[in-house]
Task: inverse folding
């Protein structure tokens, strides 16, 4: 069947067969399906959705579009585990979680993605580390995971090549929010990585792809069902993204915050809660702990004793980065030269944040992409980001802008001012729980 006929069928709200989906994904990889056709198919899927069978077929076809990692020859003495976030602003959890799980005896081949829309990408953060090879070949990935215990990398040419192409098109065509495409993108990479356990951080709120809680819970349940149906043990946590996660947003600045976290310095409470909650679930899934609470306690212990930080440093060194990044991260992760404090128009308490606009402010500074081909400035971003419930005014800013030119900082400032709602200084704030519930198959 012609590719355009497959697109027309989905545009007409009809279910695609296993063979039609296989043909489409194969065409994405061998380039017989054009970028415009990928964009059209993504939009048709976004608007009309897929049924369960289509969703599973698309996920499996993408997982099989390249090599699947076989870990048997490595004779690993622990489970192969991973975590994935649906994306948010300031979400640097992966940078702490991977070495913490490795410190507890798990093996983490974390295949991550680049930024999508207003959300930051883990791979872009790792690219801010000088010398770090974020997309090694398959042999190097396996060697690092076997030797160190974790590797945070991007999908290589061998692993899920279909997703890499579709991912880039989604980012610039307004189709990131498709539940079906999100499911296939996330789980195809995880299946190809040869995982034995997966925990999902599914976010809701103003900075997530789905602000609505019910819609987010549906996504979590879908992801967990498809993963377990494909033989991958999986749980999910629903977490709040109605404000920035942590106190920074950008690339190098987030890596700095992650290293401070691993050094047990300046730890943001919400960032701590999400990170340790996910660690606990994942260690339970991998049978390294009897319960999520026991897993959390194990992860906390290795965070406090410095073992997790040492695993992060070993990972960075093994993938070409500096050997002393934990002790000397300021030198290795330079920031843009210009700074500007953004103060609220009046003193008061932060009552709400349009977190999406905060993410867009980072893009205005140059820390994200408008087009898939755009280069990212790793040194720009935001720090000292005000949280809901925090008092702001003439001395306490909404955030500190870090940029390279006044024009981009002006545009970012406009978005920051639009994003924050300030109430009276004595207004009582009831904050949303950082973790609302868990989804277990």
Result:
């Amino acid at each position: 069947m012609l590719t355009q006929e497959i697109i027309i069928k989905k545009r007409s709200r009809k279910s695609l067969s296993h063979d039609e989906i296989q043909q489409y994904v194969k065409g994405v990889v061998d380039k017989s399906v054009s970028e415009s056709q990928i964009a059209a198919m993504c939009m048709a899927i976004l608007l009309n959705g897929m049924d369960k069978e289509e969703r599973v077929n698309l996920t499996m076809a993408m997982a099989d579009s390249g090599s699947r990692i076989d870990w048997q020859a490595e004779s690993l003495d622990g489970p192969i585990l991973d975590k994935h976030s649906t994306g948010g602003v300031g979400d640097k959890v992966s940078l702490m979680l991977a070495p913490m799980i490795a410190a507890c005896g798990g093996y983490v081949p974390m295949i991550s993605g680049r930024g999508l829309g207003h959300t930051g990408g883990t791979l872009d953060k790792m690219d801010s580390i000088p010398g770090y090879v974020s997309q090694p070949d398959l042999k190097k990935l396996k060697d690092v995971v076997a030797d160190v215990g974790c590797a945070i990398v991007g999908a290589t040419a061998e692993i899920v090549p279909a997703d890499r192409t579709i991912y880039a098109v989604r980012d610039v065509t307004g189709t990131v929010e498709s539940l079906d495409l999100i499911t296939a993108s996330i789980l195809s990479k995880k299946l190809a990585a040869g995982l034995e356990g997966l925990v999902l951080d599914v976010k809701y709120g103003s900075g997530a792809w789905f602000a609505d809680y019910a819609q987010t819970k549906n996504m979590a349940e879908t992801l967990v069902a498809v993963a377990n149906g494909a033989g991958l043990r999986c749980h999910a946590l629903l977490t709040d993204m109605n404000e920035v996660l942590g106190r920074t947003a950008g690339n190098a600045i987030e890596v700095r915050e992650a290293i401070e976290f691993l050094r047990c310095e300046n730890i943001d409470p919400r960032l701590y809660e999400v990170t340790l909650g996910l660690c606990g679930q994942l260690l339970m899934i991998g049978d390294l702990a009897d319960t999520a609470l026991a897993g959390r306690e194990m992860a906390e212990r290795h965070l406090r004793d410095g073992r997790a930080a040492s695993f992060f440093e070993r990972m960075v060194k093994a993938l070409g980065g500096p050997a002393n990044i934990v002790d000397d991260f300021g030198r290795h992760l330079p920031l843009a030269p210009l700074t500007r404090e953004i103060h609220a128009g009046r003193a008061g308490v932060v009552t709400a944040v349009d977190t999406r606009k905060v993410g867009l402010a980072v893009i205005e500074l140059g820390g994200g992409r408008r087009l898939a081909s755009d280069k990212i400035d790793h040194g720009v971003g935001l720090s000292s980001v005000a949280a809901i419930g925090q008092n702001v005014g003439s001395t306490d800013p909404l955030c500190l802008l870090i940029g390279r030119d006044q024009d981009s900082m002006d545009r970012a400032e406009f978005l920051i001012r639009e994003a924050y709602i300030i109430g009276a200084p004595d207004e009582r704030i009831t904050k949303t729980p950082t973790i609302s519930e868990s989804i277990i198959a």
Summary: The chain has three domains: 3-49, 72-330, 335-423. The first helix runs from residue 3 to 11.
